[in-house]
UniProtKB/TrEMBL annotation:
This is Polyphosphate kinase. The keyword Signal does not apply. HAMAP family: Polyphosphate_kinase. It comes from Actinoallomurus liliacearum. The lineage of its organism: Bacteria, Bacillati, Actinomycetota, Actinomycetes, Streptosporangiales. SUPFAM superfamilies: Phospholipase D/nuclease, PHP14-like, PPK N-terminal domain-like. The active site is at H439.
């Protein structure tokens, strides 16, 4: 939404009524920044291809969840006004318009820049008519051997109703004519999702799978005439709705809902722009969508499949290899002795996840002096060493408690599978709270020391216990044997597993009980410091800033003159730089090789920095409907390191995007790339160690 500077209606508390940017558009503008990276000729070519693919898969999820939610609210008559002041119908209309513009921009970038650049490097993505005759013959043979047997053409006639079209599936809409009786029929052919998205016609020359199928349609409809064919793709509502208050068994209820999710209503119909009105009308009627949900784009569809091209073995067209540093916890040290001596702060992927977080759990599982391991799991990979270590610990007779969040969006089935595997191994598996997702990243190891005393070792992180994403997601983790943190984390697990109501934490802020209020309290304290002439500054790093209470608290601090830096990856509903409201606030976004994922909340605090890290973004769902944790970092060197990251990110010569008061993000060039800077620093540290 665009507004004229200074044109803000005032609310009763003195803040403008329209002081919040539209959440949905802000997310789309985040994805536009991803598209900016795909368009950046200074990046390695196959990394640009990867960003092109990420844009497409991001947009799929946006439609599956956010657009689906808006559509559901409209259908059920829930007229909830957004923070930006719009009704769901207005938001949906504007969101559809912006999404359509970005999809066309994405398709144009693919055709006009990415494809020619790939061709210059000897990698061609072609359509069927561009192939050589020998390549066509080779692909036709491949069709007969490996593709034809798995295809199922479905004709629509009085005996065969219109088939179910699964979400995110690529399909061919085919019109065929029976020459004997002259009848024209509609047929659908699903492009098999388990086959490669792009087939290699000859070395480094690729063609979309649907082109090969389309060329061979006569083999599927023998004795008929193929009149026309068009690719199409649908996106369905994939948001889960489980009534936890009435579900007797949450696991079974979720499994039933996962089955129903396959049949969610269509929220987007993508078609190639060459589709004829007759075929499009038929699809719209049968799929029950109106014109607003139709997105015509140049082919090919489903460019998320370009990730396969990005994965090609062409190292010269990719980022140079980076090996994480192991200096924070060298292999030849005793991890428990190290943590008894001092806290360790790691930042992945610059610091090794394997030799820090994984190692803590693996060493605990193998150590005969360890009595218990407790851990939350929100997302993890299918071959996670942490899962194996927890199973080993349980089989060795240690008490193992795992809080598995089976409602983690799009990982529900995987988490159910791992929960059952852990249970079979003897782990105590807990599914968290009714009505809340357990999103915090916390591990607790209880060890009997040589003197007979018990000591607790903890990890509190900003990212998931997932070794795969730890290589590409930027996250912090605090490993500590501090007794106060250990006591807090023990109380937290008692809260998660036994419904203990003890919320009197010393070094933790925990949602939904104390996190929002704790941050607001510290914002107000910065105002007091500023009024008294003491050093005051607020610095937030998060993935999303949407919560109106916290945004208003930041506005009040800005009105009092407190400098505020916001470093946000994705959604930001705060308007920075508005005279009289937010002129001391600057908002920046940094995207690059790694996905900025950590959450850091730093306060100048009169000259004695107070810094918190943890799992919580500043959104309603995080602060009200999830169990989240922030832990206070107390080591002065660690605090200085975290504050130094803000100095780097907010510097005048740093590459970033800067948010303006109207919601427009402007790309800012500079000599300093934050992620490259941190990689170089880790290389030097590794060499020195």
């Amino acid at each position: 939404m665009s507004v004229e500077p200074g044109h803000f209606a005032r609310s009763a508390d003195g803040l403008p009524e329209d002081r919040f940017l539209d959440r949905e558009e802000s997310w789309l503008r985040f994805n536009q920044r991803v598209l900016d990276l795909a368009a950046d000729p200074s990046l390695p070519l196959l990394e640009r291809v990867r960003f092109l693919s990420i844009f497409a898969t991001n947009l799929d999820e946006f439609f599956m969840v956010r657009v689906a939610g808006l559509t559901r609210r409209m259908a059920t008559g829930i007229a909830v006004q957004s923070a930006s002041g719009r009704q769901p119908r207005e938001v949906l209309a504007h969101t559809s318009e912006v999404a359509r513009e970005l999809m066309l921009e994405h398709a144009a970038l693919f055709r006009e820049e990415i494809l020619p650049a790939l061709a210059k490097e000897g990698i061609e993505v072609l359509r069927w008519d561009e192939l050589a005759d020998t390549e066509k013959e080779s692909l036709n043979r491949l069709f007969r051997r490996q593709i034809y047997p798995v295809l199922t053409p479905l004709v629509v006639d009085p005996a065969h109703p219109f088939p179910y079209i699964s979400g995110q599936s690529l399909n061919l809409a085919v019109l065929v004519r029976d020459p004997e009786i002259g009848t024209t029929m509609f047929a659908r052919v699903k492009v098999p999702p388990l086959l490669p998205r792009f087939l290699e016609a000859s070395p480094s020359r690729f063609v979309p799978l649907e082109d090969v199928i389309a060329e061979n349609l006569p083999a599927l409809f023998t004795g008929t005439e193929i009149l026309e064919h068009h690719a199409f793709r649908v996106t369905r509502n994939q948001d889960l709705e489980v009534d936890e208050d009435i579900a007797e068994d949450l696991l079974q209820a979720l499994e039933r809902e996962l089955l129903r999710r396959r049949f969610g209503p269509v929220v987007r119909l993508e078609v190639e722009e060459s589709i004829t009105p007759e075929v499009l009308d038929l699809l719209m009627t049968e799929l029950e969508v109106d014109e607003r949900a139709v997105y015509r784009v140049p082919g090919p569809l489903d460019l998320g499949g370009m990730s396969a091209i990005a994965d090609l073995d062409r190292s010269e067209l990719k980022y140079p290899p980076f090996v994480p540093s192991e200096a924070a916890l060298p292999h030849d040290t005793d991890i428990f002795a190290t943590l008894r001596d001092h806290d360790v702060l790691v930042q992945h992927p610059y610091d090794s996840f394997t030799t820090s977080v994984e190692r803590l759990i693996e060493d605990a599982a193998a150590d005969p002096q360890v009595l218990a391991i407790k851990q939350t799991l929100y997302r993890t990979s299918g071959d996670s060493p942490i899962i194996d270590a927890l199973i080993d610990a349980a089989e060795a007779g240690k008490q193992v408690v795992v809080v598995v969040e089976i409602k983690a969006r799009f990982d529900e089935q995987a988490n159910i599978t791992w929960a059952r595997k852990l249970e079979r191994a003897g782990c105590h598996v807990v599914y968290g709270f009714v009505g809340l997702k357990t999103h915090c990243k916390v591990a607790l190891v209880v060890r009997q020391e040589s003197d007979g005393s018990l000591r607790r070792y903890c990890h509190i992180g900003t990212g998931n216990y997932n070794p795969k994403t730890a290589r590409i997601y930027e996250d912090y983790g605090l490993l500590t044997a501090d007794p106060e943190v250990g006591q807090d984390v023990s109380a937290l697990f008692n809260h998660l597993t036994g419904y203990s109501r003890d919320t009197d934490y010393r070094r933790l802020l925990v949602a939904p009980d104390s996190l929002r209020a704790g941050l607001v309290e510290r914002i107000e304290r910065e105002i007091e410091h500023h009024e008294q002439g003491r050093p005051a500054r607020i610095r937030f790093k998060c993935n999303a800033l949407v919560d109106e209470v916290l945004i208003d608290a930041l506005y009040r601090a800005s009105q009092e003159g407190v400098p505020i830096d916001v470093w946000v990856r994705g959604i930001c509903a705060l308007r920075p730089g508005v005279p009289g409201m937010s002129e001391t606030i600057q908002v920046r976004s940094i995207l690059g090789r790694f996905l900025e994922h950590s959450r850091v909340y730093a306060f100048e605090n009169g000259g004695e920095h107070e810094v918190w890290i943890g799992s919580a973004d500043l959104m309603h769902r995080n602060l009200d409907r999830r169990v989240e944790t922030l832990v206070r970092v107390t080591d002065p060197a660690h605090c200085a390191d975290l504050v130094g990251r803000f100095d780097l990110a907010m510097g005048p010569n740093t590459k970033c995007w800067i948010l303006g008061e109207s919601g427009v993000w402007t790309r800012h060039g500079g000599d300093i790339d934050v992620q490259t800077n941190l990689m170089r620093a880790r290389r030097w540290r590794t060499v020195e160690s």
